[in-house]
Amino acid sequence: MFGNKNRNKKKKEKIDIVINGIVIFFAILNLFPLYWLITSSFKNSSDVVKMPPDWFPTTFSFQNYIDVFNNQPAFKWAYNSIYVSLVATIALVVVSSLAAYAFSKLKFKGKNIIFIIFISSLMVPKEVMIVPLFRIIQDFGMVNTLNGMIWPNVATAFGVFMLKGFFDSIPDSLRESAKMDGASEFTIFYKIMLPMVKPGIGALFILNFVQVWNDYLWQLVVGQNEQSKTLMVGIATLMQDLNPNFAYKMAGATVAAVPMLIIFILFQRYFTKGISIGAVKE
What are 163-173's pLDDT values in tens digits? Predict the structure, then answer.
């Protein structure tokens, strides 16, 4: 019997090694575009399109990065992108957490119907709403402003839907006990419920920050002058040259990708925990 257990254990270990090897292989494949982007940004333009390519750069030069920041208002673009993404994400987390708490814990007439209608908006592509959204932003005088890029990204159904699942996992008895102790509804939300859904907030923060950062179409429509361009829109303008310097463009794309990596590293613990908790149904 013990012999069979040992054989099964060894067999399982071999299977785990094979599976881990396959996962590592595909992880390397997924990381290769990022590797090629970063290494190409240190090359000359002719070396980027060279055939056969140099998989490992023979020379490294920071001239492409120097040119991006000297020849273009890249610092302004980066500031606009960080400001828009950060403010929009913080505002969305506040609005979504309040709405999700109300849908999850409060009782009011028509709650389920309102929630279904609200979530149904997820089926409507944002491209369909661009014209009416632009008309609204235009009426408020927010065209060519960062506010015009921020506020349409605040009240979204996805954040409410995601955080509601986390609030649903908290027992109602906890809220009832706090109310018996005399705590107000806001105190219950802010001091008891909100700390318990931190993993969900961390995951939502990363997902929405990335979504707003990469929202090229809306930022292109609203930010029509040089002062309101974001990094995504600004980098895209580098692609319009007749004689493109590919290494120069790779450097610009790398600058646009770095903040995403930093945000993910900072919130990785909350992101992975939030996704794993959200995947488990009590």
Answer: 988 888 888 88
Place of tokens 């009011």: 108
**Token pair for residue 245?**
């310097």
- Return the amino acid letter for 149: M
pLDDT of 281 above 90: no
- The closest alpha carbon to 258, from 3, 37, 10, 13, belongs to 37
Phi, psi of 281 (to 5 degrees): -105, 125
Q: Could you please report the per-residue DSSP string of 13-64?
A: HHHHHHHHHHHHHHHHHHHHHHHHHHHHTTS-HHHHT-SS--SS-S----HH
Residue 28 CA, distance from chain mean position: 22
Neighbours of 267 (CB within 10 A): 19
Which residue carries 């090629």 as its tokens? 36
Angle between helices 246-279 and 63-71 (to 10 degrees): 90
The percent of the chain in helix, strand and coil, each rounded to the nearest 5, is 80, 0, 20
The rounded distance, in Å, linking the Cα atoms of 149 and 213 is: 10
Tokens for 79, please give them: 């500031």
